[in-house]
Amino acid sequence: MFLKPFIHNAKHTTMSNIGINTNTFRLTSKYLDILNDFIVKAKIHPEITDARQEQLIDFVSKLTDVNNAEPQFQMLSSIIERELRNFNKKPDVFLNTLIQDIKNKDTETVIPKIELITEALDVENSEVLAKIIGD
Amino acid sequence: MRSYINGAIKEAIAKGWVLMSKIPGARELGVYFPSLATIANREIERIIAELDYLYNDDDYNDPKSIRQKFSKFKQLSGRLSDIENVVIAAMSRKAADDEFVNKLVYQICQEINYPLQTPVASCLSQKYYHIYPDYNLICIPLLESEFVLHIPDIYHELGHPLLYLENPKLDAMQNNLGLFNVEVRKYFDDEIKRRELNKTNQSEFDSIHVWKESWLEKWSVELFCDLFATFTLGPAFIWSNIHMCTKMSWEVYKIPTFQKSSHPPGEARMKAILHGLELVGFKEVKKEIQAKWEEFKVIVDHKKPTGFSVAVPDKLLKLAAEFCLVGTKQIGCDIISPESKGKVCELLNNSWKQFWIDPENFYEWEKETVAQFKATL
Fold this sequence. Notes:
- Chain A is mostly helical.
- Chain A has helices spanning 4-7, 18-44, 50-64, 71-86, 91-103, 107-134.
- The longest helix of chain A is centred in the C-terminal third of the chain and has 28 residues, at 107-134.
- The two termini of chain A are 35 Å apart.
- The relative contact order of chain A is 0.16.
- By secondary structure, chain B is mainly alpha-helical.
- In chain B, helix 1 (2-22) packs parallel to helix 5 (66-92) and helix 9 (208-233) runs parallel beside helix 11.
- The interface between A and B is large, with 56 and 68 residues.
């Protein structure tokens, strides 16, 4: 009795993920771009400039700050934490050590860590892109 | 592969120019689509410039940077596909009902005092209702302009840009989402710590991480959009949500186990929006809708999985409603009340009242009402 009135004009519908997948694609693309640029420049010109150091510390600090109320960083932080856990790394330890390495301008240690973060974003970015194109 | 990537970049640049030439001219674009054409042109120009940089930059041409070059190419290629499949497609496949849906979305934005520009509406969606905040484009299924019971989903879609776009007018809304997520994170971190202390096997997989990720990456946003729709439209949105569940979402208690999901379980969405409805003064209607929802749950008989109340605790659902209400008010949107007037708001809420008066003959009423509404919009 309850369902009957609903079914008279029923058609196939699916809840759309497009909006949220597009947002994730855009957001991960934005930070992949920034981090890829950093890796490329750092591999060729190994010194970390003061401006770059400040920018990186700000970025990683926001990822570790549990009280950060910026939804974009909350999403990025969750994506990165998941991938770090998949690599059997404790996110808070990994990110806090990275901040210290950046402060020390230790390029050789910083690059592989940033590459790991980039990989985490790249995994999510590829996944949502496949969903957007195939949705 | 170095010669491959440079060849692929060159081809993508050529594709960008071809895409630009496919953007229709003034006559074909009509009244509603020129802004979409402007966005498409600018986005293609930006992508071409970035591809050009990637092709020519010495550092990116260094063999040590090959992986980064591939990665950047993938992003730019994805953006180009998006333009092709979404924006150019929407402009090229205009439908007879585009004028009506654009007027409808405009009227909704006026009534709720939407803080952004009215999105362009296209009624050729094959994927239910969805929105592209970057293109300011909302897509509506073809036949929806003839019916009213799902139109409330437009209000949900209008919520997405408010939670995503970078614009100082939206700071308050996003800040409330952020503050809510801080509570979500705290709740799950405490629960994870508690569980880890009691864990006997450290390598054992625990879905709690998946629930936390689902909230922070997807569910909070979807819930806020549901709540935004509830606060600006009222009961019609919740009826419409039940309508959607009857058609496609019988697993009302479904929570993810291994991989995050895009939407919170139906039961959680209903709890949050019913709480929201009460917050804006619809206590009696809330009881009525809740009774039908309970009836529906008995019919579908989906069993509540272990962990449901941990994955979607009532306290977070209530908090979501409270934070979202503050945010919606702070960005200046008009909050619905039982006395609210507005052409679309009245049409949608009255339609659901009429539906329940005489469900079997609703379609006849709907057909006539939609025709009259279209004539006067």
